[in-house]
Amino acid sequence: MKNFKLNNQNISQFSEIVSIPKYDRSKVKTGIVHVGVGGFHRAHQALYTDQLLHDNSVTDWGICGVALLDFDQKIYNTLKDQDGLYTLILKELDGSLTRRVIGSIVEYLYAPENPMVVIEKMAHPDVKIITLTITEGGYNYNESTGEFEFKNPNIIHDLDNPKAPKTIFGFLTQALKLRKETDRSGVTIQSCDNIQGNGHITKKMVLSYIEVAAPEILTWVKNNVSFPNSMVDRITPVTSPLDISKLKEDTGIEDEWPVVCEPFKQWVIEDNFIAGRPQWENVEAQFVKNVEPYEKMKLSLLNAGHSILGILGALMGYTTIDESVSNASISNFLRIYMGNEVTPTLDNLNGINLKNYKHSLVQRFGNEYIKDQIDRICSQSSAKIPIFIIPTIKSQLKYKGSIKHAAFLIAAWAKYSLGKNQYGKELNIIDVMKESLNEKAILAKEKPEEFLELETIFSNLKNDPIFVSTYTNAYKNISAYGIQKSIIDINSTILNEI
Ligand code: CS2
Predict the structure, then answer these.
(1) 222 CA distance to ligand 1 centroid (A)?
(2) At the N or C end, where does the chain have fewer CB atoms within 10 A?
(3) How many CB atoms lie within 10 A of CB 280?
(4) Nearest CA to ligand 1 atom 4
(5) Could you give the domains of the chain?
(6) Tens digits of per-residue pLDDT, 101-119?
């Protein structure tokens, strides 16, 4: 088979082999600016939009991808080189692959190269929505106070250099200012990150920054910008070199950075778009009045489940999520956590069969073709645990429910933060708080409660005697009996109680 580089010129070469965009990309205008063109965006929103653009009457909703950080240069270069085209590879549960070339990203910009171009694009009259996947840690709030973190050096930089910002807050502020000054329409800012109330948080953080950076536009922003909440879901591991070479071998497509993902996808969106929106509901997105219960269900079951499989699995010496969930003691742990500790905190899930949802999660985690990396899941746990796990603990404490498995997980995380698995092998910890986590983890060896002193993660949990004693017991058990045996033991205490 002859190989061709993926780009506009060669795209028709692949039409017999994979599904390709069957719309005229040159006629598609940019209506959405997306910040953070990682694997997830390309497996999720960009696919929904690509499906929508196949209706040839839809030409207003092309995406301009923005790479915000120096770190994003590689994806920018790849997309530029490939005219925004890339291959999405669905890995089905039976191992078969479904491939599709996506065409909805019609422009791409690299902010560090030319911040003004990004600001102007965000303020362009055709742009009606700015969507974000900037990770859980990207919203710059202090977990213990819930307030915007003005001490962040990049925020200080943006306040001093408004025309050459580095953070999303600096960019949005300048773009909104330009929109107001040039009498342009308002715009929707839509977070697509895994945060409870992601729209509310985005609104609060953006307004907090503007209040200091550009108070003269605050009222305009309040009246002309909407911030819908949304729940996003699709497991998207990091692309491996094998995925790239296999794509080329099987199809002749030379794609420098295809995206791989699971077959499942879900997008539940609050219908709150001040300047209009695409009809994503035509391609299976759900628009609802209140996203909160869906978000809560997904974050506290799927994402928390991931953190459990990641942290316990890492300590046991596994490298992928499917390996971790195929260990019976870990999957029992997960089931008990979901049933005993999360389910009592969920309500208002009209139309969702929670039992089936939990069952399907275990199946999705077990997809052995996905090979979702434990390193990816455990990365930035300091931003994830406060969103995925702590709210469940707080709610259970309030209603005197069980917190045994959650407290055990925190104890296991304290062990993980020491940097070694049960065989003494070094763990690859990727976390902005890696050093402080490690410092507290070392102190915790003598006095387990020390780990809870990290207030930006645990807020005031260290003052709850029930939590502290449950956590301390779990920590001592792991120290005394090792991770495997203490997981089995904690599962059996619950089964006995039941
Ligand atoms: C994962 C998510 O980052 C994580 O810890 O739980 O990336 C997860 O795969 C997605 O939210 C799935 O929708």
Answers:
(1) 31
(2) C
(3) 18
(4) 377
(5) 4-288 (3.40.50.720), 292-492 (1.10.1040.10)
(6) 999 999 999 999 999 999 9
